[in-house]
Structures are given as structure tokens and as C-alpha cells.
Input
Amino acid sequence: VQLQASGGGLVQAGGSLRLSCAASGSVFGIGTMNWYRQAPGKQREMVASITGGSTTNYADSVKGRFTISRDNAKNTVYLQMNSLKPEDTAIYYCYADLNYYNSNEEIVAHKKWGQGTLVTVSS
Output
């Protein structure tokens, strides 16, 4: 099972981007899904999370600008980022509580990181 993030890129300040992160493989279900980011020289920080019941939580720095959502049928989480600022420049990572079938067809739980996608906001 893998998490594949996409949607990063270069955008001017005030612009928008939409990130996606899809789980692939023998997925049984997904619990909480999260977006984190890591800017150069800084620690990784939580940006937004969404539970299986679609309860959301945001870092103060992105409230009112970013929206997290999920499509359970597609095993995908999204991050709509509006009014982007240069300080939003970072590598964005998805992180999810996955339940999937292993090679013995048993359901196992595993927290997994996706690969990062780079977001660059120019001033």
C-alpha cells in the first residue's frame, strides 16, 4: 500500500493550489488523514487533518485559507490552498492511518507517510 501525493508547484503569492494524496493497493479503510509540511531549516509541522467522520482540524497559520477534504470512494485526501503566502513554501506530506490486507489476507493497521510534493510561493 502506498500514498501518492501530487499537485505541488510554483505559484505567486495570493494564488491557489490543490494537493491530492491517494492511497493505492489493498486498502480496507482509512482513518484520519493528515497533511504536514516542512520548510527549509524548519521542523515538520501539521497543517490539517480530517478524521474518518470528516472532522477537520487546522494549524492556526492556515485557518481560513486552506481546506482539507476526503473522498473515501477514491481513498484520497485533498488540500485546497488559497491566498498562498511565501511562508507557505515547503514540502507537503500526507500521512494516514491505513487499514489494508497483507499477503495473508489479514487486515493490518499501519500509519504511513506519502512522498512529499513541493509547494513554492513566490512574492
